[in-house]
Structure formats: structure tokens, C-alpha cells
Amino acid sequence: MMHTTVGWHVELEFQEDETHTKAAALVRLPDGSEVRAHGHASRHRTDANQPRVGEEIAGARALNELAMRLLTKAHDEIDSASGRTSHPIHV
Q: Region Disordered: start and end of each range (predicted)?
């Protein structure tokens, strides 16, 4: 039975103006590698100015991209360790 505890900390940073929100996501993995991703959101001129909503959308998009990059990294590591092409990882 495995009793190893591993924790990952994901950082999200935002840059905003009146109509755009950009998010940058970063996770540092226990092997010392880092995976980064970005997301964005744009407010339509007729929408109310709600910075929190822009952060949620841009953050979700950055986290989605981060998840896809982690899946790709894992897939590449499987291929490298096995010496063959593995089945695609689907979400």
C-alpha cells in the first residue's frame, strides 16, 4: 500500500484593463519541472464591468490549457519510458 503524499501548488496571476483579462498559470512539479499556460477573457462593450467574472473565465481557460499541457507531458513521458507510441490520453 502506497503512503506517499505529494502536493502541487498552482499559481494564477492576472492582468486586467477595462475590457481584457489575461491569466497566467504555473505549476511546479516535484521533479523540478514547471508547466505554464495562459488564458484570456474579453468583456463586450455592452456588458457590465465585472472584473471577477473576467478573472474566472481567463483563469478557467488558463487552467484548462495547463491540464492539457500536463496530459501531453505525461503522454510524452509514457512514450519515452516505454520506447513505443502509447494510446492517446483523452479527457
A: 32-53
- The answer to whether the CB of 14 falls within 8 A of the CB of 58 is yes
Cell readout for 51 is 472584473
Q: What distance separates the 2 farthest-apart alpha carbons in the chain?
A: 57
pLDDT at 91 over 70: no
Q: One-letter amino acid identity for 8? A: W
The model's pTM: 0.85
Please state, in angstroms and rounded to a whole number, the distance separating the CA atoms of residues 77 and 11. Answer: 24
DSSP secondary structure of the chain = ---------EEEEEEE-SSEEEEEEEEE-TTS-EEEEEEEEE--TTS---HHHHHHHHHHHHHHHHHHHHHHHHHHHHHHHHTSPPPPPP-
Q: In what order do the strands lie in the sheet with 20-28?
A: 10-16, 20-28, 34-42
